[in-house]
Amino acid sequence: MRRYLLLSWVLAGLVAGGAAHLLGRPDLAPWLWSAAALPVAAHVGLGLVRSLLGGRVGVDAVALFAILGAVVLGEEAAAAVIGLMVAGGEALEAWAEGRATRALTDLMARAPRRAARIDGEAIEEIDVAAIRPGDLLLVRPGETVPADGTLDDISATLDESMLTGEPLPVDFRAGAVLRSGGVNAGPAFRMRATHGSEDSTYAAILRLTQEAAVARAPLARLADQWAVGFVAFTAVLAGGAWAVTGDPLRALAVLVVATPCPLILAAPVALVAGIGRAARRGIVVKGGGALERLARIRTVLFDKTGTLTPGHPRLAAVDADPALGREEALRLAGALAQGSTHPVSAALVRAATARGVALPVPETVAEVPGGGVTGMVEGKTLMLGAEGFLHAAGIDPQSGFSIAAQVSAAAGSVAWLAVDGVPSAAFVMADGLRQEAPRTVRRLRALGVRRVVLVTGDRAAAAAPLGRALRLNEVFSHQTPADKIAVVRAEAAAAPTAMVGDGVNDAPALAAADVGIAMGAAGTAAAAEAGDVVLLVDRVDRVAEAIAIARRSRRVALQAIALGMGMSGVAMIVAALGGLTPLAGALVQEAIDVFAILYALSALRPGAEEQVPDSLPAEAGLDERYHEHAGLRQLAEALRDAGEAIDATPSAAAELAAVEERLRTELLPHQHEEERALYPEAARRLGGQDPMAPLIRMHAEIEALADRVAVLMGLATKDGSWEATAPELRRTLFALEALLRLHLTMEEEMLADFRGAQSAAHP
Predict the structure, then answer these.
(1) What residue ranges are annotated as transmembrane (predicted)?
(2) CA torsion sign, 201 to 204 to 208 to 213?
């Protein structure tokens, strides 16, 4: 407000002096112009003293000398214009910073201050500071969730756009974890607080934004260093012009156009603009210093679990005794797993439920922490757990299993099932890649990151496949927190390095890196505190986006400085040669200041390297096709099961007929809808020459193989033809399974940008 008052005073004095001159009172005009300019000189002088006391050479010295010199030399109008330039530059800086920090300001403004606590039958209004863990809270429509907690109602719908940058509301079910800061976009709901307001997610975000707002960027300090040299150059040029010509007005004109506002203002405005734009995308950067370091990153290290992978195990493969069968093995294991809270047990239950398997209720369930679970299901004694758990009961779990099971077990953890003391099934669990991870790595390389490395405490057998899939430069496995710090320091010695992680064990490595990037949406508070950048949305592709924003902001800052000071330098030389009067020079410098600050504000817009395709319209059916992919992956498993079931007799004919019908009723209509509505819309937004051609070609091959299955089925069911046709039918089913899995993966990756624009949730 003080900056705007000063600007108003100068502007009023400048106009009053001009009016006095026009109304025939030229004697009064210089006094009015001086009265307008001298308060600005006093304001600048105080700022200069504070800078000197703070150990920095104040670059506003040029402006102070220009105002005072103009008044002394009788150029009061020029002094008033210089005052307008300084006051206007500060007001423009205040406006620009407000524009750039709008996202951070919005976060602060939306901080909840009151909450409704349910006490028996009564509802009382309390300050959010009075919330305690265990309190039952009522969140009404439009209110902000005041503290972290769990949903105590059937459902809730929250707008978390200020936390994550994602525009779509998110639906939650009973027992779901709620983060403070989300806005209730549906009916009122009850929640049970798990933290006080000061310990909640939103309070932590506010602390981070406050740190970001006050941190001083290295680029701003670099501007101060340049300004020292610039002041010296200005003094030499102004003094030289005066000495050579004997005209003090030449020196004054040089001082007027030398006011280094572009150098002072452009860098902070551009960097704060970058911080604000990152905040709108769910990326909190702790200050301009972190943003500038992020712009120079050339090596990125990733943790594995919870970073490149979702951190939740899923069922990757099943191998079972043929007499039991895969589906029956999953049914028994899923039934027993219902009595356990272990993540692997939860994954087995999810897998069985997704396949439509009805799970009976287990009896006499007992769980050994870290080992496994035992119980009775339909009269059968079951054991489900790790290999050592079964060994302790005298059961060798790997006896009788195929080589495929042994190979699969090497790459992922395995839950073994024993039925009545006999090893009967192996469930291979994997923590698959995040869908956006491959695209993230490719985008990092496109941004100039030379090394992308995996650093994990997991086994080499689990880490190596990720390294191959993502084409990483190196994989470090079996890493303790101390080992991770050593790797970070070794990489940082060669190039600026960022570390990305989410767990407590990652916090030391995050702190050791040039830039620590914490997955804050689902990660730990320790990681968020140690990181320089916190991702509030659970998407690893925000890492590449953060680097792209940082690089654009730094580039714009340097360009604004170079352009502004370059134009000032030219104007100084022209003034030294007598081409500009002090008044004309003041007007020219005002235009240069406005240009430099407005150019710095262009950091609010994405650069060319940040452009992503527009989201697809609902008519394209992207969400519907993605939801169908889950069923198609089950169809791929059915193809494999049917192929493995084929033997010399037609015993698998019924199973094959069911699979062939699913090909006709599920797969082929799905592909037809994609080519009718989804692919044309995606192609228009992706651009280029027929970008969807590879997927359409794969559709054609899948259809040809589906037709071949139908033909072979017809041949096989003829009298005496089964044995001759069975080998070719088996090969065709396996080929169709492999092609279908590859196609689904390629399609999801090609369309991932469209999917990411519509939802932050991992499909």
Answers:
(1) 226-245, 251-276, 556-577
(2) positive
